[in-house]
């Protein structure tokens, strides 16, 4: 039996395809009839209700060194604390500011 030596440029993609468990490289696009979208996560409900405080009422509720996302629309401004956007169920806050819809996200 004669053994062939493949050049690295050929051997690596071939080995990768075999390790990926298919007859074509893992990076190849599936054919239209093979495509099946996968639901990875349940959709999060929109967050439209959250506490809003006037600057004079914030007091100790907000640490002076805390990161915020500041937004101004027209003459209205709001600061969204980043820690409100980092929980597993809080990624986007939907709001209305200055008569416009805004989405604060981190």
Describe this structure in words.
With 106 residues, this protein is an alpha+beta fold. It has a domain at 55-105. The chain has helices at residues 8-19, 55-58, and strands at residues 68-73, 76-81, 92-97, 100-105. The chain is elongated. The model has no long low-confidence stretch (mean pLDDT 77).
Number of beta-strand segments: 4
Give, in order, the helices and strands: HHEEEE
Helix content, binned percent: 10-25%
Overall structural class, as computed from helix and strand content, comes to alpha+beta
* Helix segment tally: 2
Alpha carbon gap, first and last residue? 61 Å
Sheet-strand content, in percent, reads 15-25%
Average predicted local confidence, pLDDT: 77
Main attributes of the structure:
23% strand, 2 helices, 4 strands, two-stranded antiparallel ribbon, two-stranded antiparallel sheet, alpha+beta, single chain, 106 residues
Helices and strands in order:
Elements: H1 8-19, H2 55-58, E1 68-73, E2 76-81, E3 92-97, E4 100-105
Antiparallel strand pairs: 1-2, 3-4
Describe the structure in brief.
The chain is an alpha+beta fold. The protein has helices spanning about 10-20, 55-60, and strands at about 70-75, 75-80, 90-95, 100-105.
